[in-house]
Amino acid sequence: MIKIFSGERESRLTVQVADTQEKIEKGLMFVEKLPENEGMLFVFSEKTYGGFWMKNTLIPLSVAFLDSDGEILKILDMHPCKEVECPAYDPKLSYHYAIEVNLGWFEKNQIKEGDYVFLE
Asked: How far apart are CA 24 and CA 17, in angstroms?
């Protein structure tokens, strides 16, 4: 469970944790439905660069990129890709964590860049 603070508002999100290379590479591939307040937390052992791609991902997602303090640096919307070559969704900055949720979840919960995420 993670908490996301946006001003006085607090949102809770149940997450699966991807903290190994294998789990990070698989992500939410082949998932057909993601419950509304659930997502995936990607944990990188050190600052990382580069984007996420949606190969073999069946549902549209939003992704937030976070620094080591849990500050949301960038939020991007991503769309499923069943092609051989899929675009990368690159925040063009370094990050330590990423959170994937259903498309539009951050906006629906009024979560924006500059807000903070805390792990429970």
From this structure: 9
DSSP 7: T
Spatial CA neighbour of 63 closest among 36, 42, 84: 42
Cβ of 63: how many Cβ atoms within 10 Å? 24
Comparing CA positions, the residue from 97, 75, 102 lying closest to residue 24 is: 97
CB 28 within 8 A of CB 59: yes
Among positive and negative, which fits the CA dihedral 69, 12, 112, 43? positive
Rounded CA-CA distance 103/67 in Å is 21
Cα–Cα distance, 97 to 80 (Å, whole number): 21
pLDDT digits (tens, 9 = 90+) for 67-113: 999 999 999 999 999 888 899 999 999 999 999 999 999 999 999 99
